[in-house]
Design a protein that fits this description.
This protein has about 270 residues and is mostly helical. The chain contains 13 helices and no strands. It has helices at about 1-20, 30-40, 45-55, 60-75, 85-105, 110-125, 130-150, 155-170, 175-185, 190-205, 210-220, 225-240, 245-265.
């Protein structure tokens, strides 16, 4: 009788313990769904927390891995403030994003998102490194973007990344490129025309995505197509916000329009 009583008490304690720690009773799929719900409400940190919990349950869950990579990039991008401490925190998050993206690729090399978020993490991280590391990483970024497009020709974000890659490479002028090649090795080539082509493709695939229009506008600036640039920046302001980043992107578009107005630039 006493033994049965003790067993009953232990079962009650175990039940209370499990109720107090609901994460232990949730599947990876349920935690990912919870993360998606937070993500849809623009609560990126809470979404990331749920995806990380999913990996505790199922460490090799591909969807959780690439969504954790995305989460670290998004949370880092939204960080405000300046100074070495903030920069270090952001850099550390981009490093983590790269790690999880590579893990995602190792689990499933044949899906677009692992490769895309590897390119995103590398692209963000490398801007905080030296010139030699930037050149080396630019080649890796291009490889990851190309693979993401190969696996899903409808991935608008990958075309966006390819457009930005071309503009960044094209901004390295002749003299800088020649000197840089001597010091750091060959520098990949890009062109503003290719940047325009691929950003227009991104817009075609997802016309309501504010960042596509913002970056296309910046490429038009580089091409001295000021009227088209103005149209794209105004489009950013017209579109409704659809993510946690969009408010800041709209502010950037306003700043670009104000700069154009001050300079009085036009295509004529």
């Amino acid at each position: 009788m006493q033994a049965r009583t003790h067993k009953f008490i232990l079962l009650v304690i175990l039940g209370i313990s499990l109720l107090a720690r609901p994460g232990l009773t949730q599947t990876a799929e349920e935690l990912i769904k919870s993360g998606d719900e937070f993500y849809a409400r623009w609560e990126d940190q809470k979404a990331l927390d749920e995806y990380l919990k999913a990996l505790e349950v199922e460490p090799k869950n591909y969807e959780a891995l690439w969504k954790v990579a995305r989460g670290y990039v998004d949370v880092a991008d939204l960080m405000t403030g300046s100074g070495k401490e903030v920069e270090k925190q952001k850099f550390d998050m981009y490093v983590k994003a790269e790690k999880y993206a590579r893990q995602a690729i190792s689990v499933n090399p044949n899906d677009t998102w692992g490769h895309f978020f590897l390119s995103a993490a590398l692209g963000k991280k490398v801007l905080m490194l030296g010139k030699k590391e930037q050149i080396d990483a630019s080649k890796q970024v291009r490889e990851a973007v190309d693979k993401a497009i190969e696996l899903d020709p409808g991935n608008d974000l990958a075309y966006h990344a390819l457009g930005r890659w071309h503009r960044r490479m094209a901004e390295i002028g002749g003299a800088k490129r020649a000197l840089g090649s001597i010091i750091y090795g060959s520098i990949p080539r890009g062109s503003f025309e290719e940047s325009e082509k691929w950003l227009k493709k991104a817009v075609e695939l997802k016309p309501d995505y504010i960042n596509h229009h913002l970056e296309l506008g910046r490429t038009y600036l580089a091409l001295k197509k000021y009227n088209l640039a103005s149209q794209e920046f105004n489009k950013c302001l017209e579109l409704p916000e659809a993510s946690a980043k969009d408010k800041q992107l709209k502010e950037e578009a306003r700043a670009e329009l104000a700069s154009l107005a001050r300079k009085g630039t036009s295509d004529d």
